[in-house]
Write a structure and sequence with these properties.
Number of helices: 3
Shape: rod-shaped
Length: about 120
Protein backbone atom coordinates (compact mmCIF):
# COMPACT_ATOMS: atom_id res chain seq x y z
CA UNK A 1 0.00 0.00 0.00
CA UNK A 2 2.82 2.39 0.87
CA UNK A 3 4.51 1.76 -2.51
CA UNK A 4 1.23 2.48 -4.29
CA UNK A 5 0.82 5.71 -2.31
CA UNK A 6 4.37 6.79 -3.21
CA UNK A 7 3.76 6.09 -6.90
CA UNK A 8 0.41 7.89 -6.98
CA UNK A 9 1.48 10.85 -4.88
CA UNK A 10 5.05 11.23 -5.99
CA UNK A 11 6.11 14.89 -5.99
CA UNK A 12 6.76 14.93 -9.72
CA UNK A 13 3.30 13.53 -10.52
CA UNK A 14 1.63 15.96 -8.15
CA UNK A 15 3.55 18.89 -9.65
CA UNK A 16 2.58 17.76 -13.15
CA UNK A 17 -1.06 17.49 -12.11
CA UNK A 18 -0.99 20.96 -10.54
CA UNK A 19 0.60 22.46 -13.66
CA UNK A 20 -1.92 20.84 -16.01
CA UNK A 21 -4.85 21.77 -13.78
CA UNK A 22 -3.67 25.39 -13.48
CA UNK A 23 -3.09 25.66 -17.25
CA UNK A 24 -6.57 24.30 -18.00
CA UNK A 25 -8.17 26.64 -15.47
CA UNK A 26 -6.26 29.58 -16.95
CA UNK A 27 -7.46 28.59 -20.42
CA UNK A 28 -11.11 28.37 -19.28
CA UNK A 29 -10.93 31.74 -17.52
CA UNK A 30 -9.43 33.30 -20.66
CA UNK A 31 -12.18 31.76 -22.85
CA UNK A 32 -14.88 33.07 -20.52
CA UNK A 33 -13.42 36.57 -20.49
CA UNK A 34 -13.08 36.60 -24.27
CA UNK A 35 -16.69 35.50 -24.75
CA UNK A 36 -17.86 38.17 -22.31
CA UNK A 37 -15.84 40.87 -24.15
CA UNK A 38 -17.32 39.77 -27.48
CA UNK A 39 -20.88 39.94 -26.10
CA UNK A 40 -20.20 43.40 -24.65
CA UNK A 41 -18.80 44.55 -28.01
CA UNK A 42 -21.89 43.19 -29.81
CA UNK A 43 -24.14 44.94 -27.29
CA UNK A 44 -22.31 48.25 -27.83
CA UNK A 45 -22.71 47.88 -31.60
CA UNK A 46 -26.45 47.19 -31.29
CA UNK A 47 -26.89 50.15 -28.94
CA UNK A 48 -24.97 52.41 -31.37
CA UNK A 49 -27.11 51.34 -34.32
CA UNK A 50 -30.28 51.76 -32.28
CA UNK A 51 -29.24 55.28 -31.28
CA UNK A 52 -28.58 56.12 -34.94
CA UNK A 53 -32.04 54.89 -35.96
CA UNK A 54 -33.71 56.79 -33.14
CA UNK A 55 -31.84 59.94 -34.21
CA UNK A 56 -32.92 59.40 -37.82
CA UNK A 57 -36.56 59.00 -36.76
CA UNK A 58 -36.30 62.11 -34.57
CA UNK A 59 -34.88 64.03 -37.55
CA UNK A 60 -37.93 63.08 -39.61
CA UNK A 61 -36.63 60.17 -41.69
CA UNK A 62 -39.67 58.09 -42.59
CA UNK A 63 -38.12 55.43 -44.77
CA UNK A 64 -39.95 52.11 -45.01
CA UNK A 65 -38.45 49.47 -42.78
CA UNK A 66 -36.92 51.86 -40.21
CA UNK A 67 -39.40 50.83 -37.52
CA UNK A 68 -38.90 47.15 -38.37
CA UNK A 69 -35.13 47.54 -38.19
CA UNK A 70 -35.45 49.31 -34.84
CA UNK A 71 -37.58 46.43 -33.55
CA UNK A 72 -34.93 43.94 -34.74
CA UNK A 73 -32.16 45.86 -32.97
CA UNK A 74 -34.17 46.11 -29.75
CA UNK A 75 -34.78 42.35 -29.82
CA UNK A 76 -31.08 41.69 -30.46
CA UNK A 77 -30.14 44.02 -27.59
CA UNK A 78 -32.41 42.12 -25.20
CA UNK A 79 -30.94 38.84 -26.43
CA UNK A 80 -27.37 39.99 -25.71
CA UNK A 81 -27.96 42.04 -22.55
CA UNK A 82 -29.98 39.47 -20.58
CA UNK A 83 -27.19 36.86 -20.35
CA UNK A 84 -24.63 39.59 -19.59
CA UNK A 85 -26.75 40.92 -16.72
CA UNK A 86 -27.29 37.43 -15.31
CA UNK A 87 -23.63 36.33 -15.57
CA UNK A 88 -21.50 36.25 -12.48
CA UNK A 89 -18.40 38.44 -12.63
CA UNK A 90 -15.41 36.80 -14.32
CA UNK A 91 -13.35 34.49 -12.15
CA UNK A 92 -10.03 35.83 -10.92
CA UNK A 93 -6.90 34.63 -12.61
CA UNK A 94 -5.74 31.37 -11.04
CA UNK A 95 -2.71 31.68 -8.83
CA UNK A 96 0.40 29.90 -9.89
CA UNK A 97 1.51 27.23 -7.46
CA UNK A 98 4.62 27.92 -5.41
CA UNK A 99 7.75 25.96 -6.29
CA UNK A 100 7.27 23.83 -3.16
CA UNK A 101 3.84 22.60 -4.33
CA UNK A 102 3.73 18.87 -4.47
CA UNK A 103 6.49 18.35 -1.94
CA UNK A 104 5.58 16.33 1.07
CA UNK A 105 6.63 17.42 4.54
CA UNK A 106 9.31 15.32 6.14
CA UNK A 107 7.91 12.56 8.37
CA UNK A 108 7.77 13.68 11.97
CA UNK A 109 7.85 17.37 11.06
CA UNK A 110 4.49 17.85 12.72
CA UNK A 111 2.87 19.16 9.54
CA UNK A 112 -0.15 17.56 7.96
CA UNK A 113 0.26 15.38 4.90
CA UNK A 114 3.27 13.35 6.02
CA UNK A 115 3.59 9.59 5.60
CA UNK A 116 0.76 7.62 7.14
CA UNK A 117 1.38 6.10 10.49
CA UNK A 118 4.33 8.42 11.20
Amino acid sequence: MEALERQLMGPELLRAFIEVFAAERHHKVAETRLARRERRRALEEVEHRTANLVDAIADGVRAPGVAARLDELEARRAEIATPLDAEPPPAPEPRRSPPSAGRRPAPGSGRQGGARGA
